[in-house]
Specification:
Layout: E1 4-15, E2 18-29, H1 54-66, H2 70-75, E3 78-87, E4 90-99, E5 104-112, E6 115-123, E7 128-134, E8 141-142, H3 145-153, E9 170-179, E10 182-190, E11 196-202, E12 208-217, E13 220-234, E14 237-247, E15 250-262
Antiparallel strand pairs: 1-2, 3-4, 3-15, 4-5, 5-6, 6-7, 7-8, 9-10, 10-11, 11-12, 12-13, 13-14, 14-15
Length: 288
């Protein structure tokens, strides 16, 4: 028999100078899959229109209002966060930086068989790359096309609903769906190159509770989603504090944020792929 956990989310909403508190009770089966209806929009074909449709615009406006206001989102130019990520029973620590212009920098550290490991994955606005830093420093490498698109477009914290990031997408309303049993709206962000980013907006709270798009897991191309289960204000904006990682309809991991910092001082060089400074082995010419 599956055990049922009751998860209470305490959310604060600011509207017309008043603060209201809303308690949501979600019953989620621990270790279970998710309803197929929650990913039904993924199989649809889309034609990218020139502008957002009116329903999507209204839902995005409601989301911005419910999570701190549009100006608060605009003012939140960057976010630093640290925490842990667990996948397939393995836990890593991470440090994450996300910016409103789309740039991201993610550092993983973990220990395995007595050795310390460290890896960086980043997106500079054009190129997504990765580099192993320890126990042995590796050569910086660009991510594959799908890996790069997923890392650049499926952020953990900042949603693409204010410029400059929003300018990359046109949003199309796709109807009703459910997330963890709750009624939700589904809107799809379409890029100029035809890629799709799915966003589920709760019908009662107007929070984005699930989002995702194509990615790779275990070398297989799958829809990889993030489902928010806890939230916290950071720099006046309500952001996810805990995420469930989902491949198609199955949960496979969790992200827990421990600390946040709004608009930290950053060295923007961190986002750019470093030059290959590893020595090149030269062979002596072969004498005839």
């Amino acid at each position: 028999m599956k055990m049922i956990n009751c998860v209470k989310l305490i959310l604060r909403f600011k509207s017309a100078g008043m603060i209201a508190c809303l308690v949501l009770s979600q019953f989620m089966a621990s270790g279970t899959g998710f309803a197929q209806s929650e990913t039904s929009g993924y199989s649809m074909k889309f034609t990218r229109p020139e502008y957002d449709d009116p329903t999507s615009r209204k839902l995005i406006k409601n989301y911005l209002t419910a999570t701190g206001g549009k100006q608060a989102h605009i003012d939140l130019q960057s976010v630093y966060a640290s925490g842990t990520i667990t996948e397939a029973g393995k836990t890593k620590s991470f440090e994450l930086v996300e910016r409103q212009d789309g740039r991201r920098h993610l550092t993983y550290t973990w220990r395995h068989l007595g050795r310390d490991y460290k890896e960086v994955i980043a997106f500079d606005g054009v190129i997504a790359w990765k580099q192993k830093l320890s126990p042995k420093k590796g050569i910086p490498q660009e991510l594959s096309k799908i890996e790069a698109w997923h890392f650049a477009n499926q952020r953990w914290l900042i949603q693409p609903f204010v410029v400059p990031l929003k300018a990359k997408y046109v949003f199309v309303y796709q109807g009703s769906s459910k997330v963890a049993g709750r009624d939700s709206h589904l809107i799809v962000g379409l890029t100029q190159d035809g890629e799709k980013s799915f966003h589920y907006i709760d019908k009662e709270t107007f929070l984005v509770t699930r989002w995702g798009g194509y990615g790779y897991i275990g070398g297989i191309k799958e829809y990889l989603d993030y489902q928010a289960t806890r939230f916290e204000y950071v720099g006046g904006v309500l952001l996810a504090r805990e995420l469930t990682l989902i491949a198609e309809t199955q949960a496979f991991g969790k992200v827990v944020f421990d600390d946040f910092e709004a608009n930290p001082d950053l060295d923007l060089k961190m986002f750019y792929q470093p030059p290959d400074d590893l020595p090149t082995l030269r062979q002596r010419p072969v004498q005839p």
